[in-house]
């Protein structure tokens, strides 16, 4: 989870789930911006990060086609959270 400025926190760094079980990765952020936008990436081993999706306070984010079926997220500017759900 990355933000354009300020900072983000993933309270639980690692999660384990059985195959086929949905899991939600929490992400909290603190931003001085009035138009928050955050991004989720996936990184396997030493490979470069792969863009999954973006979330915006105003407007619609983007999800890469190969992740649309199983990955989703919604930015909540009130609680300053942008959890990622993987189906």
UniProtKB/TrEMBL annotation:
Q: Which InterPro entries match?
A: Ig-like_dom_sf (IPR036179), Ig-like_fold (IPR013783), Ig_V-set (IPR013106), TCR_variable_region (IPR051287)
| Entry keyword set | Adaptive immunity, Immunity, Immunoglobulin domain, Receptor, Signal
Any idea where the Immunoglobulin V-set domain is? 13-87
Q: Does the keyword Secreted apply?
A: no
Q: Which domain of life is it from?
A: Eukaryota
Q: Which GO terms fall under biological process for this protein? A: adaptive immune response
Q: Which Pfam families match?
A: V-set
**Which PANTHER family does its entry note?**
T CELL RECEPTOR ALPHA VARIABLE 16, T-CELL RECEPTOR ALPHA CHAIN V REGION
Give the protein name, as stated in the record.
Immunoglobulin V-set domain-containing protein
């Amino acid at each position: 989870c990355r933000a354009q400025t300020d900072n983000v926190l993933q309270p639980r760094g690692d999660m384990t789930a059985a195959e086929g079980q949905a899991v939600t990765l929490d992400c909290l952020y603190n931003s001085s911006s009035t138009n928050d936008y955050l991004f989720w990436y996936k990184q396997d081993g030493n490979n470069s990060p792969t863009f999954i999706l973006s979330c915006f306070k105003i407007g619609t984010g983007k999800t890469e086609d190969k992740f649309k079926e199983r990955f989703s997220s919604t930015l909540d500017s009130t609680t300053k959270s942008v959890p990622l759900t993987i189906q």
